[in-house]
Amino acid sequence: MVGIGRLNHVAVAVPDLEAAASFYRDILGAEVSEAKDLPDQGVSTVIVRLVGTACVELITPLGEASPIAAFLERNPKGGMHHLCYEVGDIIAARDDLIAKGFRPIGSGEPSVGAHGKPVLFFHPRDFCGTLVELEEV
């Protein structure tokens, strides 16, 4: 059995990335990264560094075809989008979860995430109603 590691980040979908980044940076005093576009995932993102190891990832659609656009249509003010857990070997974790009946989103092949590391998403119906991202560290 392959286990998950620590919580890497909580992703929050937002309709206005700069306004959300400004809120965390200017009002809450957090360290906020520059915006980064991830065309393969259809999002633009910033990372909010927290004390400790986990962070908040703010995500907004990068074009109308983005899955985040549909999320924001249902939740116009934004909201929690997914949880990201770390794994040591993303392929082993994927294969273990698939063998247990969990369904990856998309092709099931890892893509490069916001931190420049391999990531995979799993269906929320299989994770207590929460979209889950695995990130190899």
Secondary-structure map with pairings?
Elements: E1 7-13, H1 17-27, E2 31-32, E3 36-38, E4 43-49, E5 55-61, H2 67-74, E6 79-87, H3 90-99, E7 111-112, E8 118-122, E9 131-136
Parallel strand pairs: 1-5, 6-9
Antiparallel strand pairs: 1-6, 2-4, 3-4, 4-5, 7-8, 8-9
Description:
It is a single chain. The chain is of the alpha+beta class. It has one domain: 2,3-Dihydroxybiphenyl 1,2-Dioxygenase, domain 1. Helix content is 21%, strand content 35%. The chain contains 3 helices and 9 strands; from the N terminus they run βαββββαβαβββ. Strands 1, 2, 3, 4, 5, 6, 7, 8 and 9 form a 9-stranded mixed beta sheet that branches. Strand 7 and strand 8 form a beta hairpin. The protein is globular.
Count of β-strands: 9
CATH topology: 2,3-Dihydroxybiphenyl 1,2-Dioxygenase, domain 1
Largest sheet: 9 strands, mixed
Mean pLDDT: 94
Report the portion of residues in β strands.
35-45%
CATH class: Alpha Beta
Mass-distribution shape: globular
CATH homologous superfamily label: 2,3-Dihydroxybiphenyl 1,2-Dioxygenase, domain 1
Question: How many distinct domains?
Answer: 1
Total number of helices: 3
Characteristics:
nine-stranded mixed beta sheet, 35% strand, 2,3-Dihydroxybiphenyl 1,2-Dioxygenase, domain 1, alpha+beta
Short structural summary:
This protein is an alpha+beta fold and 137 residues long. The chain is built from three helices and nine strands, in the order βαββββαβαβββ.
